[in-house]
Amino acid sequence: MSSSLSVFLLDTAATRRLVGSRDEQLLRAVDEHFGDDLASDDEWFSRQIEDGAPGAAEALRAVVHGGPYSADPDHAFQYGYAYRRLCRLTGSFLDNSGFSPFRGSWLSVVDEGLRALRITAVSLAEFHYGDALPDGVPPSAAEYPSCGEWTHERCLAALEQFERSERDGHAPPLEPEVVDAVADVLGWLRHAGRRPGFGVIGFVS
């Protein structure tokens, strides 16, 4: 079974504030941009919705209004997807060609490549196993979507680690596909580093 990593360049603090903002204009913008996507997801998750999970639009409204939420953690996955839609709307999608789709422990393999380059300030595994959903979004019993966040400060720290490694002439041998994936990650870090307050929010699904 394959998974997909979606990564977005965002003002991370401002993005978190969208939860509970009660911004009706934001809801209208999501419906305008992703109306077909909402309907498609409702069809995909029709069985879960029949069992009581909120539909995509209902989950989105709950996240923007800070509730009401389903009390069943088996249904809370919909709120994670709702938050991802808010990130898609308000952020910039970053190139993820080295990660979508991916299989097995690929994120950990690339993390090993980052560590070989002495980059330890960020980890791709956080996107797979992290719990970076904002306060107010209920935790889910489902594995997906998972969410991780790299703050602006951590992105800068990772870039500094890479630049120091380059200055030291440290060039460990890496498999070509790992080199390509690491190049993607460095691109994300550079985008974030150029914009104060901006970081990377990623979702695995």
From TrEMBL:
What is the protein name given in its UniProt record? DUF7691 domain-containing protein
Query: Where in the numbering of this chain does the DUF7691 domain appear?
Result: 1-205
Q: Which domain of life is it from?
A: Bacteria
UniProt organism field: Kitasatospora saccharophila
